[in-house]
Design the sequence.
């Protein structure tokens, strides 16, 4: 197939799991013999060539159009970005006949819908998370309501909708009133070969970060409220009292960063918590290899790729019992706790940090789970099956009937009738 991927982030620019997902999926599709084109945004740290082949993938990076709009003006930025991505992707569609357009999340929704309308190419959309879920069912302001509506619009425009877990399928059925037969579950993946950490490298990293008697806990991810780092901070002192010297490393950035730093100061944990910022892939894997345990304390988590990556590195994991995380550790490959319950989290961490047999069992089970269930080759094959189904459905629809006009549907859609509480 000839595939066009649209994404607002792509390696080396990775903000969260979405960027890593799109990069790995594109490479896996190319490795399977498909012709893959990615249109994404340009950044100063991206490769100098804006139109290049990277790991067998055709990548076009779009510079921002003048006048440059800051990302803090999110709506204006998204509209400007979609204008540029639609123009550049349209040029590719003039030059090549594509089988499918694969849009990743609402930030490329406008461009995907416009390209489908113009070029009659089926759209497959992956919804990595929802605004409704990120805010635990509350849409506090106009921005949140807008994002929620664009997410719904993208799922309407898409011929098929991919989600990463059964939890996300249920969420989209509920909040967007999507028919179950339109949704496909395709999990995120890891390439186990990329996560091999040599024991001597892990030991050297550990020695550079903590003392020989200090336990090491690692969190990696975006610093947002729904990621639950505040629960981990609340549990840390109890863990220290029960197991001795313990240091927490927090890898990532986000809008909740300053609030978390204030919480560290309030709890007088400055000597025991280190904010590393974003770690490059290799450094992150060394940190996983060095850590005694990785924690994913999310309140809301559609999938939880970082837990699978920790397992692939041979690190035991403790996760919030929610969303896709629950499915990842369902076979006993990790421990779980009730989100926002620091005492439960502390108990789970103490168990891992004091029971060597348990920790070794979690490592063995976790590595096997990552290898057997989340291989990128299998993920790519399943994604291609979804593409083929989207093509068949689009061809059948266009050959037998006209598509229902969009405007009346938008006016009638109950999801857009939101009160002040969302």
Sequence:
């Amino acid at each position: 197939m000839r595939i066009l991927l649209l994404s607002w982030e792509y390696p080396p620019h990775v903000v969260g799991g979405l960027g890593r997902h799109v990069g790995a999926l594109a490479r896996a599709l190319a490795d399977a013999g498909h012709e893959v084109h990615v249109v994404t945004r340009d950044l100063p740290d991206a490769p100098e060539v804006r139109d290049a082949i990277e790991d067998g993938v055709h990548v076009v990076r779009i510079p921002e159009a003048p006048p440059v709009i800051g990302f803090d003006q999110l709506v204006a930025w998204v509209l400007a970005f979609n204008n540029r991505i639609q123009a550049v992707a349209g040029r590719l569609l003039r030059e090549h006949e594509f089988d499918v357009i694969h849009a990743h999340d609402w930030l490329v929704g406008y461009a995907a819908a416009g390209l489908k309308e113009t070029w009659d190419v089926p759209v497959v959309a992956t919804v990595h998370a929802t605004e409704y879920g990120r805010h635990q069912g509350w849409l506090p302001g106009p921005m949140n309501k807008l994002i929620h509506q664009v997410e719904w619009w993208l799922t309407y425009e898409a011929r098929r909708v991919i989600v990463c877990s059964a939890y996300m399928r249920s969420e989209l059925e509920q909040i967007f009133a999507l028919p179950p037969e339109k949704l496909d579950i395709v999990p995120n993946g890891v390439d186990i070969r990329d996560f091999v950490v040599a024991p001597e490298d892990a030991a050297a990293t550990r020695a550079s970060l903590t003392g020989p008697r200090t336990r090491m806990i690692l969190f990696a991810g975006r610093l947002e409220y729904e990621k639950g780092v505040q629960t981990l901070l609340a549990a840390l002192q109890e863990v220290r009292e029960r197991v001795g010297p313990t240091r927490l490393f927090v890898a990532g950035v986000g809008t909740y960063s300053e609030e978390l730093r204030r919480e560290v100061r309030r709890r007088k944990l400055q000597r025991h918590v280190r904010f590393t910022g974003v770690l490059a892939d290799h450094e992150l894997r060394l940190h996983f290899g060095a850590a005694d345990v990785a924690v994913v304390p999310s309140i809301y988590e559609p999938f939880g790729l970082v837990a699978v990556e920790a397992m692939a590195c041979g690190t035991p994991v403790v996760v919030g019992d929610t969303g896709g995380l629950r499915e990842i550790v369902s076979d006993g490959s990790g421990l779980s706790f009730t989100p926002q319950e620091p005492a439960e989290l502390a108990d789970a961490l103490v168990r891992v940090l004091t029971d060597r047999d348990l920790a070794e069992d979690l490592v063995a089970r976790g590595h096997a789970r990552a290898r057997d269930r989340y291989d990128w080759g299998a993920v790519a094959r399943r994604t291609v099956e979804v593409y083929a189904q989207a093509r068949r459905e689009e061809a059948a629809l266009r050959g037998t009937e006209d598509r229902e006009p969009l405007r009346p549907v938008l006016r009638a859609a109950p999801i857009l009738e939101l009160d002040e509480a969302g």
Observations:
- Confidence is low (pLDDT under 50) at residues 405-418.
- The longest helix spans residues 376-400.
- The radius of gyration is 22 Å.
- The first strand starts at residue 2 and ends at 6.
